[in-house]
Design goal:
heterodimer, A: alpha/beta, B: 1% strand, globular
């Protein structure tokens, strides 16, 4: 009996505190909901942290971060909850663009500002987009690889999850901008490593056994590229191995500095966060009605890596 | 008469050792399919690749035999691993880092035991809750970012003793310990008794609560060790690493003949189950089989293993019933 009363009191206290906190936070500030794809995804977590830090620079804004846990159902429910909670702006980093499209359309229908990012959901009237172009991110690498990869080279390819916009677009760019231009190159292994370092390691360990020569690693992100390089670390047979990635993670930048990785394209979470918050601010203060914009695609190689090391150090990522 | 004895012997061999026959056949087929398969480097690679999930699989085997399960193993592994990595980065001590990893695994596993034995939460739900909590804790602690530049810490996953990779040494020792515990200790026999019929185990005087706590303690130690080995192997503290590893571990245990209904399973069977999956994955990669096809093959093997398990159980029951009715005949 006592425990039942105690449970009732605790429940009431929790409910009251939720309402009090919610209403207090709302006073005189724009409320932004940031629905992340999955905090377990290291780039998504980096971006969420960067958005939080950037939002702190805007005194008239409060930002709440929600985790979609790489689950379409969960992410969609979170978008619906944000609509119910009457946020002024909802930023969605989709897990699967087409699965979240109807829910972003609901945001627009509810008269709430909608922004989609990393990757954008295009073609929703009234919804803004801030993104990096995954095709271009791979293309800048391809430009370098076309001239660097030796004649009749044997390469291995590490792909991201199928159906993921960034994974598919980056692979499409490699097909068009590199493999079509270099028909002499042979793909001796191609697998899906789901952006993961450990999965990429396993594939590379097997490829090293079945191929006496591997000239280059073409990876759709840096994590997988780092995994492949971990396998051949210290093996003189692979001293001249070329390795290309995307993201510009701290690990990739260090590998380029050490001379073990060839190049990556920086998909800067800081740049994305800065552009996201300035876009949200312009839309919330009614300076503009719809914005579609991209960050740049800087290529990092041994020639300019020191600059990026300094940027990451300043941001506390190194 | 001799023919009958031979038939009986073959039936015993089939029932007890069929998984090893499958493993041997697969080994033979793989070595014919690709010449690189039999190289020492490749076999060493397979063992290293399997070491982490097989260590988890031994923990799952112990739990499943006693009628429980651990769905939190992958997440607890990630938490143990990142905490071990952090301890090393802070102190430079390999011993402390290893201890932190193991203690984290044990603490999480004992919380599972507490929920299951004392608070009566079903193992599936309790460990599912721990899966979410441990993953959340790992992400919160690292803010979702990988921990880099591990230095000497990589020795656990990448080093070797007398040319033998350290993860394989861990795997061999843990296999031997699990085998001994299951075959030659009172605790091992109690696990089978509880999994076979918990009420009968209570009636026969087994302290079920204590045995379940010990089973989770054993599992926790293995998960902690696996966490240290995994992070060391990938040379990074990955809070999002080892997702779904518990299912890979369960796959090895089930293929190896551990019965989901409890009371049946062996360490050697689990090891064989892990190697069956490992050989298949390896040969499919060596021969360039498409990713999607690989997933279908893996799924089909799990389905076949479970179908075989059910079929074998029905056969055993039928044989027992027939035997009993023969014994009762005048």
């Amino acid at each position: 009996m006592i425990s039942k009363k105690l449970a009732l009191v605790v429940t009431l206290v929790l409910l009251v505190s939720f309402f009090v906190c919610g209403s207090a936070a709302a006073a005189d500030k724009f409320r932004i909901a940031y629905v992340a794809r999955a905090q377990a995804d290291s780039f998504a977590a980096w971006l969420a942290n960067a958005v939080k830090a950037e939002a702190a620079k805007y005194p008239d804004v409060t930002l709440d971060v929600f985790d979609g846990e790489a689950n379409d159902e969960k992410e969609n429910a979170m978008i619906e909850n944000a609509i119910t909670n009457k946020y002024d702006c909802i930023i969605v980093q989709p897990n699967n663009g087409e699965a979240q499209r109807p829910y972003v359309e609901k945001v627009v229908e509810a008269g709430i500002i909608a922004i989609t990012t990393n990757a954008r959901i295009s073609g929703i009237a009234g919804s803004s987009t801030v993104d990096a172009d995954p095709y271009m991110q791979a293309k800048v690498n391809c430009g370098l690889a076309v001239s660097q990869v030796p004649q009749n080279a044997k390469v291995v390819v590490l792909n991201g999850p199928p159906g993921n916009f960034h994974a598919d677009e980056r692979r499409r760019a490699w097909g068009r901008e590199f493999f079509e231009k270099r028909p002499d190159v042979t793909i001796v292994g191609e697998q899906i490593a789901n952006w993961n370092k450990d999965e990429a390691m396993k594939f590379m360990e097997d490829w090293v056994q079945s191929n006496s020569v591997i000239d280059a690693v073409v990876s759709m992100n840096d994590n997988m590229c780092a995994g492949a390089l971990e396998v051949v670390k210290g093996n003189p047979k692979f001293d001249k191995l070329l390795a290309y990635g995307v993201d510009g993670t701290a690990e990739a930048v260090l590998l380029i500095q050490e001379g073990r990785m060839t190049a990556t394209c920086m998909q800067s979470a800081y740049d994305l966060a800065e552009l996201l918050m300035s876009t949200a601010n312009k839309l919330l203060t009614k300076q503009e009605k719809q914005i579609d914009t991209d960050i740049g695609n800087p290529l990092i190689t041994k020639d300019n890596v020191e600059k990026f090391v300094e940027i990451l150090k300043a941001a506390g990522a190194l | 008469m001799t023919q009958l004895k031979m038939g009986e012997m073959w039936a015993v061999v089939k029932e007890k050792y069929s998984i090893f026959l499958v493993l041997l056949t697969l080994f033979f087929v793989c070595s014919l399919t690709n010449p690189n398969f039999l190289s020492i480097n490749n076999l060493s690679n397979i063992s290293r690749q399997l070491s982490v999930t097989t260590i988890l699989a031994f923990g799952e085997t112990i739990l499943i035999i006693s009628g429980m399960i651990d769905l939190s193993a992958g997440s607890v592994l990630a938490l143990s691993g990142v905490l071990a990595v952090s301890a090393f980065k802070a102190t430079g001590s390999l011993t402390l880092a290893f201890t932190v990893g193991v203690v984290t695994g044990v603490v999480c596993s004992l919380i599972n035991a507490l929920m299951i034995t004392d608070l009566r939460v079903p193992p599936f739900i309790a460990t599912l809750a721990m899966q979410t909590m441990a993953r959340g804790a790992a992400l919160l602690y690292t803010k979702g970012q990988n921990i880099l530049q591990l230095g000497r810490f990589v020795i656990f996953g990448q080093g070797s003793i007398q040319g033998l990779p350290i993860p394989i040494v861990f795997l061999a020792v843990i296999f031997a310990v699990t085998w001994y515990v299951l075959r030659h200790t009172r605790f091992g026999r109690s696990l089978y008794a509880i999994g076979g019929n918990e009420e009968a185990a209570v009636a026969s005087g087994i302290n079920v609560r204590l045995v379940k706590y010990k089973a989770f303690l054993f599992n926790g130690v293995l998960v902690g060790i696996a966490g240290v080995l995994f992070m060391s192997r990938v040379n990074a503290g990955l809070p999002n690493g080892a997702i779904n590893f518990e299912f890979q571990a369960l796959t090895a245990a089930i293929i190896g003949g551990t019965s989901f209904s409890g009371g049946i399973g062996t360490a050697a069977g689990t090891l064989a189950g892990a190697f069956i999956v490992g050989f298949l994955d390896n040969i499919m990669n060596l021969t360039g089989v498409d990713s999607y096809v690989q997933q279908i093959v893996r799924g089909a093997i799990i389905a076949l293993a479970v179908i075989y398990d059910i079929w074998a159980k029905v056969r055993r029951r039928t044989r027992r019933t027939l035997g009993a009715s023969k014994g009762q005949a005048p």
